[in-house]
Specification:
- It contains nine helices and eight strands.
- With 219 residues, the protein is an alpha/beta fold.
- β1, α1 and β2 form a beta-alpha-beta unit.
- The protein is globular and about 40 Å long.
- 40% of the residues are buried.
């Protein structure tokens, strides 16, 4: 079994936990909106590739400044070494922002549904919009209201062809999709830094995911 790639979310300035995570994670996501004042020093302590993310309140984030300042902060993250920048699909002037980020960093264009999981055909529509916006990586995250909702997001990953995609469902019903996303061909899945610091419902910690994947390996 190919080793699943894990992106560990940094949402707290816990340098000890971040150092420990370096041994197990493949890349990090730095949640600038959750860390705020100390994000630059955290960024400079990361020795693996990292994604710069700064969610606005309308996207379930905690960014308190203007949208202009948020974009300015993400561009600064590129200058500080971010390998990837997460930009929401519905961002105003998305094409211009993507143009500013490239070619200095890759663009991950994200879509979240906080209430449910649309049909597979609708998820393909979202994926097409992300590709038209010149996403290097397409992230599509839904909410699982039942175990069956895992199938749509995993099938999307399976049918995405050569397009780099990460897609899974939030919530306790969606934990299987978090685990199986990279096994179905997703470029990576997400994990929390520790078990007590989660950034989304149903999220598993880095240690939990690595343990599960180690058990799943064939003898």
């Amino acid at each position: 079994m190919k080793t699943p790639q894990i992106c560990t979310v940094i949402s707290t300035p816990d340098l000890k936990a971040i150092r420990q995570a370096h041994e197990l994670t493949d890349l990090f996501e730095l949640r600038i909106d959750l860390i705020y004042d100390s994000w630059e020093s955290i960024a400079q302590s990361i020795s693996k590739p990292w994604i710069a993310t700064c969610r606005s309140k309308k996207d379930n984030g905690e960014w308190k400044g203007t949208n202009e300042k948020r974009i300015e902060t993400l561009l600064k993250a590129v200058e500080l070494g971010a390998a990837i920048v997460d930009i929401e699909l519905e961002t105003t002037e998305l094409n211009e922002i993507v143009h500013q980020i490239k070619p200095k960093a890759k663009c991950l264009i994200s879509y979240h549904d906080w209430s449910g999981t649309p049909s597979l055909s609708y998820l393909h529509v979202i994926l097409k919009k992300q590709k038209l916006a010149k996403a290097d990586i397409c992230k599509i995250v839904t909410t699982a209201n039942n175990a069956g909702d895992n199938l749509a997001v995993l099938q999307l990953v399976r049918e995405s062809g050569k397009t780099p995609v990460t897609s899974f469902a939030m919530g306790t019903h969606g934990q299987l999709s978090r685990l199986f996303c990279p096994l179905f061909g997703g470029c990576f899945t997400y994990a929390s830094l520790t078990e007590d610091v989660l950034t989304a419902s149903g999220q598993l910690s880095l240690n939990q995911m690595r343990h599960i994947y180690s058990v799943m390996k064939p003898c």
